[in-house]
Fold this sequence. Notes:
There is one protein chain. By secondary structure, the protein is an alpha/beta fold. The chain contains 16 helices and 17 strands. It is globular.
Amino acid sequence: MNTMDRTTGFDNLTQAFTxxxxxxxxxKLPPRSVRExxxxxxxxxxxxxxxxxxxxxxxxxxxxKGKGSTASFLASILEExxxxxxxxxxxxVSSYKERITRAGHQFDDQVYISSISRIRNIISxxxxxxxxxxxxxxxxxxxxxxxxLIFQDxxxxxGVIETGxxxxxxxxxxxxxxxxxxxxxxxxxxDILGDTLEKIATEKAGIIKERVPVFxxxxxxxxxxxxxxxxxxxxxxxxTLTDQVEDLKAEGNSEGTDVSITWNDGFRxxxxxxxxxxxxxxxxxxxxxxxxxxxxxGMNGKKTASVIRKGLLKATIPGRMEIARQGPAVVLDGAHxxxxxRRLVRAFTDVFPGKRILIFGxxxxxxxxxxxxxxxxxxxxxxxxxxxxxRKSDAEAVHRHFLGFNGTSELVRAxxxxxQRAITLSGGSIPILVTGSFYMIGDIRKLLIxxx
Length: 452
């Protein structure tokens, strides 16, 4: 275990992560174009820390939706198989610790503080010109570095890495993975990644490496063409779920999702997911397909089935169809595009077919009107609130959008007051959905699960 540069210099975890937030933060102030990302800067940064990303086998995951769930499923399966599995995802709901875990389980605070201290000790001696392009390093680059340092220090034996934005120039794309996963692609971050599915898919396909197997969700035809062509140019074996899975069934309820997966070779598992939503079945099947490839040929079918089944059940991820309270049920989900909202509403109404209450908050730059068109007609009462202060928002404008689709919509700016209003309206029985932004659900989650 590396013991150099262990002078903490931070009194607590908040202080340590605040230091990282002091750098260029594209999550708070989005970049103007993909050109602002610099892989060479990340590579130079990692070299100064001994290239900690090169020590263990990794799986790299890109896509527009389902990345976090797929990553969590795979990490949980690998952990169940006996690997000490590091998991790096984003964004977080309540704490940066959620991003860097051992298969979803957070490390002790001192683990994060120690590695951030090491980062500061070295970064403080660098000039901007020391990192490619005379650009100051970014918060996300430092979080990515932090993940690799922690995985190295905590002696992880496998890692699952989710991209941030895009793929080709994402800070995580310095790795040479053992396998790559591509989840469904939709129109997102168009001001950064491009204004067509093909352009966005090209950015996502940037994680495909020479001869590294690629496992893809089923995709729209334009996206699939880009992926297949990119894989062919790199001689990378490529398959979709349809290529691998013969039959996939899912049935959700208020406690989870039951799935049945049958592969083309006849292998089958029946499993329970702790995550709500029948759409999680595809994410689970994709993770399990990749896991089967990663497992040694010597692992027999019975053991493989048991490992996958237990791993899928244990996988959890904050803010993805998460039941944060019962009586009334309060479900938190960070969906923030019309397409992901549509899937969420379908899953939520399947599980809760009666009356429903919505708490919604969205930051500026998201398609609030498009989400209102999907959500407004499906809820008996809508409460618009403010999704924190990390990113700019306009709750009044969002409220106006929702009034066009649901006349019951009301504006309650403070999240705590919005939650109390929803609970009062529920009468203790009507389920409540909180969505529209990870910042929105983060504020509500702190009220429901303090100290988590």
